[in-house]
Amino acid sequence: MGTVNWRRVWMAGLALAALAGVAGDAGAQTFGLGARMVSVSGPDSPAVDQSDPSNTRFAGGLLRLNATKHISLEVSMDYQSTTNPAGTARIRNTPIQVSGMLFPLRTALSPYFLAGIGWYRHKLEALDNGKPVLTGESTDFGYHTGVGGQLMFGRHAGIFVDYRYTWVDLNGIDGFMGAVRSAASLTSVVGLLTSLNDGDKTKDSTINRSGSMWTGGLTIYF
Tell me: the pLDDT tens digits for 7-32? Predict the structure, then answer.
């Protein structure tokens, strides 16, 4: 993946927010589409694969429904992919979260509390000349809670930032997470995937994984 110029992304987003705010009307806005950036911390975060916890920046999108003046429902999906320097292995992380959001006050600057559930998907591929030759996947189910704030520009656009504590209490599906934890590096992915496909479940699975997520982005309301 190429390097993203986040400064330009933010400048474009703020310009779009300003235009949307100018175009605002008096009607209540109930549905929103947005983009966000995510920074993950904690080597045991369920959002990242444990064999390579160093790449912790994600990009994603969200759908938000304002059910009432004070309650919203959000569905978000983020994505991150990394390939080892040798080009022999690739990891794709795709967290999906569903969150209930409580806004005690609905003002231009509104604090909010959130809580919800998440599916943390990981896909590990062995590569040959850039093409996957062997694949292993897992999905952890977990929970999150947090707090944040939203700054509105008129009625149609807002920027937000929040903190989310995430955790799971599950054995890895088919022993995947335990096997990944035992891998020395991404370069050992072929042996790891072979053991998975052979049904090797002798490794202990990871339990009680937890970590933190900082998210920030832009939402356009309709």
Answer: 555 555 555 554 444 444 334 578 99
User: Looking at residue 103, what DSSP letter applies?
Assistant: -
Nearest to 212 by CA among 171, 164, 156, 180: 164
Q: Taking a C-beta distance cutoff of 8 angstroms, is the pair 187, 88 a contact?
A: yes
Q: Where are the domains of the chain?
A: 6-21+28-221
Query: Mind listing the pLDDT tens digit for each residue in 157-175?
Result: 999 999 999 999 754 443 4
Pair of tokens at residue 22 = 């100018």
Bridge partners of 97?
76, 118
Q: What is the pTM for the complete model shown?
A: 0.72
Fold of the 6-21+28-221 domain? Porin (2.40.160)
Buried b (16+ CB within 10 A) or exposed e, 62-81: bebebeeeeebebebbbebe
